Amino acid sequence: MNLDLPFDLPVTLIEANPVLDLAAKTGLLLLAGLLAFFLARWLLVRGGRAFARRTRSKFDDILLESGFFSRAALLAPAPVFFWGLEFFSGLKGLLDHLIYAYLAVSVVLVLAKLLDALSGLYRTFKVASRRPIKGYVQLVKLFLYMLGGVSVVAILLGQSPWGLLSGIGAMTAVLMLVFRDTILSLVAGIQMSANDLLHTGDWIEMPAMNADGTVVDIALNTVKVQNWDMTVTAIPTFKFLDTPFKNWESMTKSGGRRIKRAVMIDQSSIRFTDDALKKRLMAVQHLAPFMEMRQKEIDAANAASGADPSSPLNGRRMTNIGLFRRYALEYLRSHPKIRQDMTLLVRQLQPHADDGLPLEIYCFTSETAWALHEDIKSDIMDHLLAALPEFGLRAYQRNALVDVRANS
């Protein structure tokens, strides 16, 4: 009686059945490749982490964070698979092609991770915000994937990859149609980079796309803008070729942000200044020197022309709107948050029958941050609106019931 029969029976059955024999060898080979992958990944990640701790270079840290070492472990099963070909004598040719195809895919995936790591290293430099390369990296990865796909097909068919690539030349028109948006986006990215039009962190406005906020990402096909309401607008990159947009970055760099706001004056409150108003306004420090100088000019001009003082329409006279306009100008000139080296003026605009007389404040604040700029602008407008009654003026309010006798 043979006691070893129960243990030898499965092996005998496997050897007697070619299908079971092939399945067992394939399973063992795949298991060996999987073990090689996990072992290589453990060694590479552990070694990479230990090496990164001992160096000051940022690149090894970025390689570790991007998953490059984990991806590189995909190459480890290939030598195991080539070694296992000795057990598949009848299928060696077919499996040889499959392993080379696997190796080609693994190399492409590893190179893609390497490109991600190089892109991450580039983003650590200051120039990255001015010259983003994410779109170019994505384009290189696209060509890499296409080349990998062609190589895999060529390997499986047993043909030269260059011969297969030459055949693709006949499909150029089809490829141009399929990748039309990608090609246009690439052209747009090159133009924006060459002309320094757009960078990550810029505040842009593109009304056609309902975008008004900060650029958070510039990729090959899309530009992401985080709007001020915290929503995100994804704009196709090629839209920047033919859609107008406004970039506020130069305003931030200039160190000045514009105030362009008008005070609407009730035209019925405009009048010549009398002695009582002049006496009261002479106590205003910003206005007294100007009033003394202007009164001397007016007196000299009226004397030279022989103007009859019995009517205010004869000769020259000061008006309350003119004095208020000068006061607003002097107030802005003395304001510590207004840029004196940039355009600064107070001017009258075309009056409207339904809106009063616009007196526009045009200047630049030294604070460009939105909240600080709005505070300064509001403080200035608060002060000027509150100063109107001191000049005998009223702010215009449509359909407001105002007793015109109050300033008569």
From TrEMBL:
Pfam families: MS_channel_2nd
Keyword annotations of the record: Membrane, Transmembrane, Transmembrane helix
Gene Ontology biological process terms, A to Z: cellular response to osmotic stress
Residues spanning the membrane: 27-45, 66-85, 97-115, 136-156, 162-179
Superkingdom field: Bacteria
Residue span, Mechanosensitive ion channel MscS domain: 181-249
InterPro entries reported for this sequence: LSM_dom_sf, MscS_beta-dom_sf, MscS_channel_2nd, YbdG
Protein name: Miniconductance mechanosensitive channel YbdG
Organism expressing this protein natively: Pseudodesulfovibrio hydrargyri
Gene (UniProt): ybdG
